[in-house]
Specification:
This protein is an alpha+beta fold and about 600 residues long. It has three domains: about 5-165, Beta-Lactamase, CATH 3.30.450; about 280-435, GAF domain (Beta-Lactamase); about 440-610, 2-Layer Sandwich (Alpha-Beta Plaits). It has helices spanning about 5-60, 65-75, 85-95, 105-115, 165-215, 230-260, 275-295, 300-315, 350-355, 400-410, 410-440, 450-465, 480-485, 490-505, 530-545, 575-590, 605-610; strands spanning about 80-85, 115-120, 125-135, 155-165, 320-325, 330-335, 360, 375-385, 390-395, 470-475, 510-515, 520-525, 550, 555, 560-565, 595. Strands 6-5-9-8-7 form a five-stranded antiparallel β-sheet. Helix 16 links the parallel strand 15 and strand 16 (about 595). Helix 1 runs antiparallel to helix 2 (about 65-75) and helix 14 crosses helix 15.
């Protein structure tokens, strides 16, 4: 039910109550007026009868009273009139005429009590009022009742009863009430019409505003308010419509401008721009906090840990791996994993990285041949960090439903990866710069700077943990002859060949350093003298087998090695390096192409024995 109908119904109800109340009040008023008029007429008639009967008695013509009473009874609206004598009068003067005796209980009650009684009788066609009025003896006034009656002061001498017809008054009241009701109905109808006409435009604009607000609440700001014909409502409608147009324009602009700050272009977009704005701002706030945090992290590993924390807590990922993919070398490196990497990356092959697209096992079974968990689903998301580096987020799930959930999160994951990209590139560049500062560019071996840092940090720890190191000093025999004969380019090639032989001959835990020129130092981790000798001989013999290219011809060279045991020969790494150099020098002096293990007898200078 509409507001206008409600107002009309309420007004109609109020008017109906007013109408019924008015009819009741008017009807009761007329009724009371008719009763009061009849009572006054009855009292007046009673006084007339009393005066007439008194006059008859004084004049001695009481036997003529019947004519008088009949005449009174014939007065208009008096249906009946009679006189009832009290026992005292009957005793003194007899019962009188037939109509002068107590006819009913009312007469007897009045004669006994001396109080006026009345009775109203109403039927569908007629209304009457019966009144019985006592006639009391009194010695005061114009006539002394005691002079004729043997009675006491105030004693009831008789009662005058009459029935008065008040039907005409009731009929008049009905007519008046009818006219009044008709007039009231006309007035009410007119009021309803006026009110309805007056309220209609305001109610219409109210409904229009309600519809517009409901549409705006649901996200539709394109609806406008209909102002109707009234100037006031038009003015209100114009103001509201102007406000709505501004809101719509502002919301649309904010939604578009804020949306470009996130990478997630596949998010579920609501038709309500306020919802989109709020959702985007929430995402931006979280991403900004993440960005602020990783900007102050010192290491690249810390950034990967932050990403993993977001994946676990925000995206509820329970099994995933973050993989670095070098775009130049093709090398894949696991930088973070929850339950270990489930992919075989030994040969560097990764389908997601190769095709630069999402690899989803729910789309096609066994999509990637490198995944060997048939009971699990997987989703690999590739992200480009720089021209040289890609990240692959490999997420493993228990079923297809979970994979679908993760796929919907791909855009959000991209937002965080994009936010972390500058920090990753910066930290990766720092790693490269640090590596370049510590790695020899010609051979790819560590350089003297790295050796200095290693000696400062790792060697004291090895000494405390009683971990031995074998120290090899290696030098190419007659290297100057290569440069002089073939040039420095061939000399550089000879250095690259010996560095490759050294790398191939040692373990991953060992350290190979280009000490300078054609000299190399190798630190063999946790070994004994026999192993030192074995590795040194391996390097020497393998290098002697190598063919060094010099244009159209090739040649072979030899090298000499000096070997020292740390900390057996000395607990100073630098002293051990010096001892290795002495051993190398001894090898060169005694024929070259050999391995010489250090012995104190090799030290000729007494000062050297006490140095360091």
């Amino acid at each position: 039910m509409g507001t206008r109908q409600k107002i009309t119904l309420i007004l109609s109800g109020l008017f109906l109550v007013f109408f019924i109340s008015m009819i009741i009040i008017v009807s009761l008023s007329f009724r009371n007026f008719g009763i009061e008029s009849a009572q006054k007429r009855a009292m007046l008639t009673a006084e007339v009868v009393k005066s007439g009967l008194t006059s008859h008695m004084v004049n001695g013509i009481m036997d003529k009273r019947l004519y008088f009473l009949n005449h009174i009874e014939n007065i208009e609206n008096i249906s009946a009139l009679w006189v009832a004598r009290a026992p005292t009068v009957i005793k003194q003067y007899g019962e009188g005429f037939n109509n002068e005796i107590a006819r009913d209980k009312i007469d007897k009650k009045v004669l006994a009590s001396g109080k006026t009684e009345q009775e109203i009788i109403e039927t569908a066609v007629k209304s009457t009022i019966r009144m019985t009025i006592p006639y009391k003896a009194s010695s005061f006034g114009d006539t002394n009742c005691m002079s004729c009656h043997d009675a006491k002061e105030g004693e009831v001498l008789g009662a005058i009863s009459m029935v008065i017809d008040i039907s005409d008054i009731r009929g008049s009241s009905f007519t008046t009430v009818g006219y009044t009701a008709l007039l009231a109905l006309l007035i009410m109808a007119a009021v309803l019409l006026v009110v309805n006409k007056f309220l209609k435009p305001y109610i219409n604009i109210f409904y229009s505003i309600r519809d517009v607000m409901m549409a705006a609440y649901s996200g539709n700001y394109s609806k406008r308010v209909d102002g109707g014909e009234l100037e006031e409502s038009k003015s209100v409608a114009n103001m509201l419509n102007s406000l709505l147009e501004k809101l719509q324009k502002v919301f649309d602009e904010i939604d578009k401008k804020v949306y470009i700050f996130v990478q997630n272009k596949n998010k579920e977009v609501s038709h309500d721009p306020l919802v989109n704005i709020n959702d985007t701002i929430d995402k931006l706030s979280e991403i900004y906090k993440f960005k602020q945090t990783i900007e102050h992290d010192e290491k690249l590993e810390d950034i990967y840990d932050r990403l993993a924390y977001v994946f676990k807590t925000k995206f509820k990922l329970s099994d995933f791996t973050i993989i670095e993919a070098d775009a130049l070398s093709g090398i894949k490196k696991v930088v973070y994993s929850v339950n270990g990497c489930h992919c075989d990356l030994a040969d560097g092959e990764c389908r997601a990285d190769r095709i630069n697209s999402i690899v989803d096992s729910t789309i096609f079974d066994e999509t990637c041949s490198k995944f060997h968990k048939p009971n699990l689903e997987y989703l690999c998301l590739p992200f480009s960090i720089s021209n040289e580096l890609n990240l692959i987020i490999s997420v493993v799930t228990q079923d297809k439903e979970e994979s679908l959930r993760v796929r919907k999160l791909a855009g959000l994951i991209e937002d965080y990866i994009a936010t972390a990209r500058p920090a990753i590139v910066s930290k990766k560049l720092m790693q490269i710069l640090n590596k370049m500062a510590r790695v020899d560019q010609l051979t790819g071996m560590f350089n003297r700077k790295y050796l200095d840092e290693f000696a400062e940090t790792a060697i004291p720890q090895a000494l405390r943990s009683n971990i031995p190191y074998g120290v090899l000093m290696i030098d190419i025999d007659f290297f100057k002859m290569i440069n002089d004969t073939y040039g420095h380019d061939v000399g550089d090639e000879a250095i690259r060949v010996v560095s490759r032989v050294i790398k191939e001959s040692i373990r991953s835990s060992d350290i190979a350093v280009r000490f300078g020129g054609e000299e190399f130092i190798v630190l063999l981790h946790n070994c004994d003298k026999a192993y030192i000798k074995e590795v040194a001989e391996k390097i020497r013999t393998n290098f002697a087998k190598q063919k060094i290219s010099a244009g159209s011809e090739t040649f072979s060279k030899t090298l000499s090695v000096g070997a020292v045991m740390f900390p057996d020969d000395s607990d100073s790494i630098w002293k051990c390096i010096k001892y290795a150099d002495i051993s190398l020098y001894h090898a060169k002096e005694h024929g070259r192409n050999q391995v010489v293990c250090f012995d104190q007898s090799l030290i000729k200078d007494e000062k050297m024995k006490t140095s360091f």
